[in-house]
Amino acid sequence: MTNKPDRAPLPVDQLTPLEASAELASLAVQIAAHDQAYYQKDQPTVSDASYDALRRRNAAIEARFPELIRPNSPSRRIGASAAEGFGKVTHRRPMLSLDNAFSEADLTEFIARIRRFLGLADSEPVGLVAEPKIDGLSISLRYEQGHFVQGATRGDGSEGEDVTANLRTLKDLPQHLTGPVPRLLEVRGEVYMARADFFRLNEARREAGEKNPFANPRNAAAGSLRQLDPSITASRPLSLFCYALGDCSEVFADRHWQLLQQLRNWGFKVNEQAKYCANLDQLLAFYNSLAADRALLPYDIDGVVYKVDRLDWQERLGQISRSPRWAIAHKFAAEQAETLLLDIGISVGRTGALTPFAILEPVTVGGVTVSRATLHNEDEIARKDFRVGDRVIIQRAGDVIPQLVCSLLDKRPADAVAFTPPQLCPVCGSLAVKPEGEAIRRCTGGLSCNAQLVERLIHFAARGAFDIEGLGEKNVDFLVRTDRIRAPADIFRLEAKEAGSLLPLKTQPGWGARSAQKLFEAIAARRVISLDRFIYALGIRQVGEATARLLALNYQTLSHWRAAMLEAAAEPDGEAWRQLIAIDQIGPNVAGDICEFFAEPHNLRAMDDLIDQLEQVEDFLSATGTPSPLAGKTVVFTGTLQSLSRDEAKAQARTLGAKVAGSVSAKTNYLIAGAEAGSKLTKARELGVTILSEEAWLALVGK
Ligand code: IVH
Hints:
This protein is of the alpha+beta class. It contains 24 helices and 28 strands. Helix 16 packs across helix 17 (545-555). 2-(butylsulfanyl)adenosine binds next to strand 3, strand 8 and strand 13.
């Protein structure tokens, strides 16, 4: 979804050819990106309604400017090309998509077009079959002599992915067909996941420590079918409805209605709701009753599909670009409901991001009781002016988490309260800051914030930090969930605590005496740690391994570093701050994050608690095994060096914590003078700066 302010597009009939051409180009790019997100990554980036709006706009502009239709126009493409990893299958008959009708008028026009195309008299009825439009992913199943031989996804409509092995694991898919069967038969249908199965699957995944639940049943179905390992697909509760034919060696029905019956007789699952409708009124009655009962169905549907019943008419009607003339999808409007915005809550993510959400008076939308909705970020709340106490419209567009659409201003009570962004993290009480120009507010509590704990601890125990073997994501998650660890210091108390526990680690699922003992030993081995690893492990924003090393080099001892950072945090622009930003490659931005960390008392407590648990945080030693003689020093190079280049010498200086300056001043500690040194040497002499020859320099850096 874009964050650009909504600007009403120009009506299509007011566009100049130039504007139209530019917009078509932009629409092609946008639609292709959404297609890719939807079809290949199973992670849609827009709601179905917004996507349909883009496609409609594209179609409307192309209708007015047919000469501008691009070769890669979205109207000529279906879906996205096949993902890599699966074999490719060329569909013998293309897998088409459906045109959409959004209103009764669209539907009237659909039937009128059929009449015109076939030249039917007004008195001739056009019988249609109405079926629920299942919200899943379409597949094609190939049978030879009644045996299932190949199954494929739609892909781009002409080429899909070979998912035969995965489809074989579906309970609804008949492997062999009973009774007389055409030699070659391709059946098309929809793989989907029932709503209850979807909720159970997400719950089981959450319990297993999976962080990213599927957003909706459609994504869950697509993600489950497109697994390279069929045993994973087999473990997922996928279902199947069949509703059309692809390639077929014999004609066995002359009406779609008969075709559905025959599919059923062969053992395919055919949707029970499908209904023959003799006229427009019956279609609308079907649509309205299904829309009303939609929530009662055990699976998600996003509309109704109408198909001309006579197969000979289907044949004559054929297709126009990507969709058949004989069928249309009548989409349901996104399900909306009105409710009361009771409050705005704040959730804190694992990385410390504060996200506001709406707390609502519970209301049923699309069969799901909703009491919360996402609000994205505080700028969006301000832009849409949501106030606590407002009557609001919420919407479920296929996704489980609904969105807040708008406030009903005519119902706004006088005492409705505008949202004030929190200044403190609601989980740990630390300061929450939103840098200028950024959309996200973040907790600065880092080490002490429970919401961020798992992420922080994983970082803490990771390779460049404390490097504790056995403390990866899964085990950290377990130890936090079972309340064994709440802060880094707890890691070092674990063994002692477990010794007195009634339910020691070794008795827990997934653990044994050996694995528990190994973990305790790995932890014990890290009670002595180098200063750079210690600093990196704290997880201060923007302080990666290289910056941690620079800090360690420059301050050398834990007590020196700790005191200096406290001073820098306490006195903006004071001496300690200036020293910090004087370090080569540490600018005010990084220094600001370090000070933010030190300004937060919760972090200090967690850090000091950790220090108490450690045996020793080693002073930082340079490669020579002694404290770096250059840490915090400013050096200047002049003249030509014989045994190394100026750049190499500068790099040596920086690695050892020195700042390399371009000119000599009273702050210069060393001038390294090569051959033919000039004015810098004179100036250094005047100022009494220590002057080193190339040899003396090499000795100093241990080369
Ligand atoms: S018929 C040539 N019937 O909707 C027409 N499609 O938006 C073939 N779909 O690609 C499709 N339920 O994935 C048909 N009862 C139904 C359907 C259905 C869901 C899907 C299908 C299709 C998409 C088009």
